[in-house]
Amino acid sequence: MADTEQNNQDAGRTVAIHRVYVKDASFEAPNSPDIFSGAWEPKITLNIKTEQRALEKIGANHWEVSLHVSVEAKHDEKTALLAEVEQAGAFEIAGFEEEDFKRMLGSYCPSVLYPYAREAIGSMVSRGGFPQLVVQPLNFEAMYQQHLQQAAAKQA
Prior knowledge:
Elements: H1 2-10, E1 14-28, E2 43-54, E3 62-75, E4 78-94, H2 98-127, H3 140-155
Antiparallel strand pairs: 1-4, 2-3, 3-4
Helix pairs in contact: 2-3
């Protein structure tokens, strides 16, 4: 019986990935080739930001979610590299209550895009002549929950 109730609750819900694409990408190695001398022990900084916008020209319930990922590596207090990518996707999301809908945009969609962004960053870094950079996986659900808690604290 629980399975039937679950199936009825899921009826009418749609989550579809229509397209995944790179909107922008850049790589800088401002101190090359001097930065390649000595032991490679960089300090890595990772910044993540997401944006969403309705794609009204495509149709109702269509959204673009963009994931901005920026990685900066400093070596001996000098910028060794800066790699940035804006990975985006066109999603169709329908049939969800507002709270779940926001979770889809703020957690699920970025988690779909992140592996693509990680690969793009890693590829740019390697092609820039640097050792492989493994950008660690992220828990977007935990990040979304933290965002909700911070927003609630601001309102209190």
